[in-house]
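Sample intake sheet
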Amino acid sequence: MSKIHLYIIGLFFFASCSTTTNDFKKYISQIKTIQPPITFSTIEFSDNKAPDNIDEGLFDKYKYADANNVYGKIYESEKFVAIIYTVNGDVLVPILVTYDKNGNKKDSLNLFDNASGLNLQSETYVTSTFYPNKTIQEIDSISTWALNDRGDDRLPGSEKIKVDSIKYIISDSGKIITNKHG
């Protein structure tokens, strides 16, 4: 292969990488920054209006697979960007996604993964708080009840409550690290 062909291939590769980087820079510039601390809860999750200024094509290109909207940009460093998306369900489910500065997905976390909502025998509610030092504290409150003999009603006075804590740390490279019982 001649030097000219190699040069053209290299130039094409560089141009396509540059376009991706520029697209991602444009995309993240359209997303509002959220200042931590901020808390999300399955019980009182606020409905954050989706921004009108986000390019739909860029949203489709970079979004979390099931995301319906962008909630906001929570962290940004020299090496990564962390964006919170929402997925529509019984409640709005926040999903944290980290990207490198070229727009490649590094990691993701469903902040309500442990939530169960209403159930006759048990309910799990989740509260997640983002802090400025790139840590996330998740508190899971789990209530369980014994059921009557027919299994169709809770027995009065049988409620048991368990609280679990999980701490997540976002590394300098954008990886989400779990520390159970943080």
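Comment: The two ends are 57 Å apart (CA to CA). Residues 45 and 121 are 23 Å apart (CA to CA).
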